[in-house]
Amino acid sequence: MMSSPMCVAHKVCGALVWIGAINWGLIGFFKFNLVNAIFGGWPSFERIVYALVGLAAILMLFACKCKHCGMPEAKKM
């Protein structure tokens, strides 16, 4: 199965979603917030990171409708 090329926006969103997933896994398993550990001195920047991760997750929900990168549509059941 060949993967279709993704546009830069989807690559960035995918990376942010992975960062969010890893952070939530660390919080759930070890009570360790990696984002807070890195940006804890800058609470406003930490909040921006959380907002970007949330927006990236929402944008990835609509990945199958991207006209720029040709992502295939989700298969209907």
* Largest β sheet strand count, sense and barrel closure: none
Task: Kindly report the average pLDDT value.
Answer: 83
Write down the secondary-structure element order.
Answer: HHH
Strand content is: under 5%
Number of domains: 1
The parts where pLDDT drops under 50 for at least 5 residues are none
| Span between termini | 19 Å
Structural class: mainly alpha
- β-strand number: 0
> Rounded to an integer, what's the Rg over CA atoms?
15 Å
Q: What is the 3D form?
A: elongated
Q: Into which percent range does the helicity of residues fall?
A: 55-70%
Give me the number of helical elements.
3
Structure characterization notes:
This protein has 77 residues and is mainly α. It has one domain. Helices cover 62% and strands 0% of the residues. It is built from 3 helices and no strands. α1 crosses α3. The longest helix is centred in the N-terminal third of the chain and has 23 residues, at 8-30. It is elongated and about 40 Å long. It starts with 7 loop residues before the first helix and ends in a 16-residue tail after the last helix. The mean pLDDT is 83.
